[in-house]
Structures are given as C-alpha cells and as structure tokens.
Amino acid sequence: MAFISNLMESRVDFRAVDMPEASRLTIHILAAVAEHERAMISERTRAAMAQAKLRGVRLGNPRLDSAEAARANVRAADAFALKV
C-alpha cells in the first residue's frame, strides 16, 4: 500500500499490465486488499507455527544439528561469494 501511495503522491502514472484501464481509485483499493491479505496470511502462518510448536514439531532440517548447520551455512556463503 505504501509503495502505491508513494507513486501516487509522486504523480507517477501507474499502469497494471493485466488491468491497464484501472483508475487510481481501483489501484488504491486493490493495493489495500492485497495488504490486508498479506496481514491475514502472516497471522495464519504465525498461528500454525505456534500450534506446530505446541505439538513438538521441530522446524528446519532435522538431519542437521546446530554446529553442522552453521558449517553448512558458512560453506554455502563461501560458495556464493566465489560466484559473485
């Protein structure tokens, strides 16, 4: 919503490829709906994670302990740095 609002305040003409005839009001409303949906998804995800935690579910790769996971992260970061 903030992104679209900033565009509108800056007088940038925003055109959605899949809806080029959309007015500023339509774009603003759709942005508000998208923001609301994002918040609802986040809320549902947090609730599901909390329920999983109560059931004793461990998240992440169960085959890696913390030290092994840290070493794997370092190896992945080093490999990425070599590519850059």
UniProtKB/TrEMBL annotation:
SUPFAM superfamilies: Resolvase-like. It comes from the Bacteria. Pfam families: Resolvase (PF00239). GO terms for molecular function: DNA binding; DNA strand exchange activity. Residues 1-56 form the Resolvase/invertase-type recombinase catalytic domain. PROSITE patterns: RECOMBINASES_3. This is Resolvase.
